[in-house]
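question for whoever is on the cluster today: can someone run the full assembly for these? six chains, 1422 residues total. i dont have access anymore since they changed the login thing
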Amino acid sequence: MRPSGRTAQQIRPVTITRNFTKHAEGSVLIEFGDTKVLCNATVETGVPRFLKGQGQGWVTAEYSMLPRSTHTRSQREAARGKQGGRTMEIQRLIARSLRACLDLKALGENTITLDCDVLQADGGTRTASITGACVALVDAINYMRSKGLIKVNPLKEMVAAISVGIVNGEPVSDLEYIEDSKAETDMNVVMTEAGKFIEIQGTAEGEAFSYDEMQSLVEIARHSIKELIDIQKSALA
Amino acid sequence: MRPSGRTAQQIRPVTITRNFTKHAEGSVLIEFGDTKVLCNATVETGVPRFLKGQGQGWVTAEYSMLPRSTHTRSQREAARGKQGGRTMEIQRLIARSLRACLDLKALGENTITLDCDVLQADGGTRTASITGACVALVDAINYMRSKGLIKVNPLKEMVAAISVGIVNGEPVSDLEYIEDSKAETDMNVVMTEAGKFIEIQGTAEGEAFSYDEMQSLVEIARHSIKELIDIQKSALA
Amino acid sequence: MRPSGRTAQQIRPVTITRNFTKHAEGSVLIEFGDTKVLCNATVETGVPRFLKGQGQGWVTAEYSMLPRSTHTRSQREAARGKQGGRTMEIQRLIARSLRACLDLKALGENTITLDCDVLQADGGTRTASITGACVALVDAINYMRSKGLIKVNPLKEMVAAISVGIVNGEPVSDLEYIEDSKAETDMNVVMTEAGKFIEIQGTAEGEAFSYDEMQSLVEIARHSIKELIDIQKSALA
Amino acid sequence: MRPSGRTAQQIRPVTITRNFTKHAEGSVLIEFGDTKVLCNATVETGVPRFLKGQGQGWVTAEYSMLPRSTHTRSQREAARGKQGGRTMEIQRLIARSLRACLDLKALGENTITLDCDVLQADGGTRTASITGACVALVDAINYMRSKGLIKVNPLKEMVAAISVGIVNGEPVSDLEYIEDSKAETDMNVVMTEAGKFIEIQGTAEGEAFSYDEMQSLVEIARHSIKELIDIQKSALA
Amino acid sequence: MRPSGRTAQQIRPVTITRNFTKHAEGSVLIEFGDTKVLCNATVETGVPRFLKGQGQGWVTAEYSMLPRSTHTRSQREAARGKQGGRTMEIQRLIARSLRACLDLKALGENTITLDCDVLQADGGTRTASITGACVALVDAINYMRSKGLIKVNPLKEMVAAISVGIVNGEPVSDLEYIEDSKAETDMNVVMTEAGKFIEIQGTAEGEAFSYDEMQSLVEIARHSIKELIDIQKSALA
Amino acid sequence: MRPSGRTAQQIRPVTITRNFTKHAEGSVLIEFGDTKVLCNATVETGVPRFLKGQGQGWVTAEYSMLPRSTHTRSQREAARGKQGGRTMEIQRLIARSLRACLDLKALGENTITLDCDVLQADGGTRTASITGACVALVDAINYMRSKGLIKVNPLKEMVAAISVGIVNGEPVSDLEYIEDSKAETDMNVVMTEAGKFIEIQGTAEGEAFSYDEMQSLVEIARHSIKELIDIQKSALA
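^ ran it for u. tokens below:
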């Protein structure tokens, strides 16, 4: 029995609020239960130096947790003077995942930055960030098309992500914090709407995991991501 | 005629939402029109080194704008590796203002940190931060009393703050961004509910301002702060 | 009775030594009693990036205290790897104040940097910095005119600054350290020679201050700044 | 046909040189073809602050590439003043993988640091680091046992890691740089000698990858890791 | 013929002003012609961690040039966020040289910090710093003895330093900036009053220098340092 | 009797391995007994900004010790976020020494960077770095000539360096760590093959050293450097 009473495959209630703030070209508040992440997409002309003159665009991401989004307060990274390893790892994952949504050639020499700021954390912040940022990205793309900044729609397909894991020996989907903190294995999966993988990251927290466990984790992730993509599409409809 | 149709002394609609997030001991979303700041108060045992063993508490503050809280995206300070001068100036002001609310001896050797994170900016973020942080501080104090962490109520009185300025030659209250960006003089005032000053900061943006202009700015600030303190009290009722 | 035997409105002996060092285009040692600040003005061609091509100049400032300018040694900011919040706040104030002296259009695309380095501190270092930097700025302007770098004199009017405060319940001018450390209210005022305000910053250190106290602080500041401007003019004569 | 003439499943010649340097408690030079990583294990008394008093040890790792280990010179991270995101991601992966080898309780309050410095890079540096660091860790453990620093052998089982990927549509093992740079999918797998997973990280570089592709990558990884563990054991024999 | 009309061995007029500022335990302004360095000595209880409990004291130094001590303005190191290599090299040299003056055991567990801040630079700032810091150190030692902080005088002997070099093929003493910038060889020598060496650093700027040139540089350095020690002693008399 | 049984003037066995890694234009592993330094030379088009358009090249150097190249582990400078003073001092010395080898005009607007990474330390790492880097520099120059990047050979002459010192009252050459740690005086000498000085740095570690001691140290350094230059030439033959 899970703390929330959910079944093993059941994800938390997911809410997607578009236009949550008014300045960003795409602004989405995504909630997976008590995990709340504000995903803002910014469109800027130009690309990083290493891409100049290649006729393609770029997608980058930044991730941060508000100091008191967590049970106890974490030090603000701006005050520490550097971003931690976990932050860097996550923002690289978000950016890679969202780049996979787009035909970067069709984006032209423009950059879209996805700022994922966790307002409240209860497990699964990186996968919520990817899932919300994808919707913000679509809004930003629509903005660009409406302004005539791009001719062709660069969106290839939607992506969504879920955190799955083995808790008390059982594979479960969409771990909340209390489950995450005692999971034996933790796996983040990013998939496209066509059901293909963008990223799969499984980590043994305590004991190593078997081939069969890996298989069943992937299986429930596929199932949950399909649900998430439906929710994204409803939000965008 | 002001862009919003407000009279010179009229402040924007102010909304105070308590318990906006679930982990912080005090969590307030304050909105002054389109300016939205999340003010989280964290209670921690102990005091900074310079106060150790003196039997008193401390209040500190951190301020940050989400990168896309503004019209164009600003670089994330955590990514730049340092907080800018404006950020430091503002968080020092917030902390000084809130320390003035409390009898630090009655707080015991505890520290309250006020994190003011601007979700959306439209002028007056520092004064909204002070006004919202004061409510979060009261909630944190109430939490401490309910847990028996302090015996005596350390709250001396409420404080609130307003930004006033001279726009097109006329003194007006609660400037929104479009006014702020062309104000000739800008003044931030922090006052107590008893109508005394905690802080007054007037700055000539273009031309120097006269004694009479200074007087009329102070006058409308007093008036607006009285209103704000009523709103704070209703929110806490 | 003040520690120095001065009357409430009496400022300390002020000495202005021009050409204190030989390389800078303006170099002023200003002394307010035992507070000694070296103010060097540097003229450089060009402006910061955000002003390029706008046909106007810029004035910026940096402030620092020598590690042992104070009673006990402070850590050197270069060794800590960053400037503190107080330093940033002060150098932003100095720069804003001095920009108010000049018609930046008349300055052309040139930048003047004011380096204010405190050799010895005894209260009022930021206001001494502004007062001394204004004289160094005039010398730098004169240098530019003598070299034909600018045609029109960009100087609008002189500015000077004073620290006033309430000590033992009485408003006094030009606080020295021993007074400053126990002041109930502290106010820094920057004014032009025409008697208008550039900046006014009043802070309650302990108790909040009343409207009447604010008024009397402003009054003695006006009086002292008039004196300072006479001293500046004599030094420049 | 692979550039090196290898079959799809064939790994490069792997050489493990123990005691490569003389000061470290474990010092291994591992070579996967032209990829050469020096893995030094350091034993130190005590644990990081968050573990103090819990009666368990810790394993941590640092990773760095010599500036000219690559085709073109990369800037030295010490000179840039910070470690990049890729470095942080890799050193976190190495540490997690090696912690999985040990019973941290049996290690006592001691810390083992694994420094993996890439002398020459030709693809697969992170997986070579893990495979080499495991041997250095065993030597460090043996040192501790010979000095009586620990009573019980904390080693649970060996781990090794391999990089696999899809190149020209075919799953291949142990990618060298020229293959890695054009791989469609890249997967790093860390496994125990019992054939269980410690970590699996698959990333679509261009197109998303299918379930079947994922399966075949895992399959060849298992095969290669078994070979690597045999090589580790021979080296330790 | 030297630019100043000096003979090859002739040093510039040297002035030593003690008690230049009032807070430091030793405060010396030293001038070698137009080179002016403020050397402040601070006495603090305790020693750095690596010396704790060894019953000996420590001497450390920091060096900085005011941004406009030079012909053109240099960026402030505190603003850059780090001290440059030249600064570090110089402050290490100053500290080593001054430690050689003292019996560190006799100093007890106290630390003396020598802050050498260059107010105006015209060549030879590091050797002027050492020569001035030695006088400030003696004043600090005298302060400690007068306060009873130490029983025995830890001063072994005075040290002084000079910059010598080969300019236009001729060895000369105490190079001013215009000579230094075209010197073929530059040598800094630190000696004790007994005529022994603490440090000798000779650098070929253009062509390598011969054994005979090295000898003649050392010879004139010995001569000049003897003069400097007489000047130090007169200042202290 | 020296710990190694060597005579006073005898240097350790020196081994020079060229092409130690495959990417760098010059790659040398130099060993002085147990001191092992990898010296990689990188050729890049262009020069630092301060040299642009002057038709000359540049040589720069970076130095680092692997964390566990020493008896106990040192913190990695990339993790600390800055290079220490010793590192900066050494890399400046290496660069100055190697610039002395070349006619920078003949190098054209190209930059050669010498990365000296200490794999194992046993005294004399900076002088081993210079001696090894000179060989790597020659290989890089040969590479440039073979590729037609330069017409004329910019190499003026070889340089080599040795560490000498006074240990137990006797001047000895090529100190290993155990001698270095108890040396009374330590001197690093860099010379050209023509027997002239590039750099001489003598430091009293405990007692000041006499003129005669200085002379005898220089004498044995000259002798050892002659040997080293023969070894360099054999390696290059």
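summary bc i know u wont read the tokens: The mean pLDDT of chain C is 96. The longest strand of chain C covers residues 35-45.
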